[in-house]
Write a structure and sequence with these properties.
251 residues, mainly alpha, two-stranded parallel ribbon, 9 helices, 2 strands, flat
Length: 251
């Protein structure tokens, strides 16, 4: 049907939103249960960046491994639950995106649906790309930096389970979310909110904003900040390529 769907009442929209949230949470929950049922391969993957055989540590001249300790009686149990839920969300991400698409699609015109559908299709690919960059590059780089940094030989780095979990979450999941930026730009461009020329004019501010985001997500050392800032700025340039030119606005 051409045009927006105006037949639904306010409460119909609320009911549709409730259904979207319920199905999304259910999808994440079912995926999490699978991970809860198979903890061994799950935690082999989670703790792999701490092991000497991790891919980045196999590079010439790189040697690294670390041991984790637990000082909280209940920490391992809650860590088990948090990791399963996080991985469940990562696996169920495409389904959650599909549920969101079903909710907003009736409110869009046909020309808007085409653009938004393309953006939603791209979102899962970019999310998993961000997760991979965080897991295989940014996280191990941060681990190596902090494990090798010491203010004195009298201080030994002993890493707690909770500290590692905090870094793991920010480096993997949040970077995956940040990689969604091009999909947002694609939608805004298709709706005529931004153009390619707009983004080119914002280049001088983009790198500063990227550095601020990278500093917020990573620990406060400049090295890991730049390791994350480089792919994030690459996403901005990719967004420029996705963005339509001004002369295409009248289509």
């Amino acid at each position: 049907m051409e045009g927006k769907d105006t037949e639904m009442s306010f409460w119909d929209h609320i009911e549709a939103l409730r259904g979207t949230l319920f199905h999304s949470v259910l999808g994440v929950g079912l995926a999490s249960i699978v991970f809860l049922a198979f903890p061994k391969p799950l935690f082999q993957a989670v703790f792999w960046p701490t092991q000497a055989d991790f891919p980045l540590y196999r590079l010439p001249g790189v040697e690294f491994s670390m041991d984790l300790i637990n000082i909280d009686l209940s920490a391992q149990f809650f860590f088990y639950l948090k990791v399963a839920m996080l991985c469940g969300l990562v696996v169920a991400f495409p389904y959650v995106v599909w549920e969101i698409w079903k909710f907003i699609a009736p409110a869009l015109y046909e020309n808007e649906k085409k653009a938004v559908r393309k953006a939603f299709g791209l979102s899962s690919l970019l999310f998993y790309l961000g997760v991979a960059v965080g897991y295989f590059v940014v996280l191990p780089v941060c681990l190596m930096f902090f494990m090798n940094f010491s203010v004195s030989d009298a201080v030994v780095n002993t890493i707690s389970l909770g500290s590692y979990m905090s870094l793991f979450t920010s480096m993997v999941f949040l970077i995956g979310i940040l990689f969604e930026f091009p999909t947002v730009i694609l939608v805004l461009s298709s709706l005529g909110v931004v153009t390619r020329d707009n983004l080119k004019q914002w280049r001088k501010y983009a790198f500063v904003i990227v550095l601020i985001l990278a500093a917020f997500i990573t620990p406060s050392d400049p090295f890991s900040m730049f390791v994350l800032a480089i792919p994030l700025y690459g996403l901005f340039e990719f967004s420029i390529l996705l963005c339509r030119k001004p002369e295409e606005g009248g289509e």
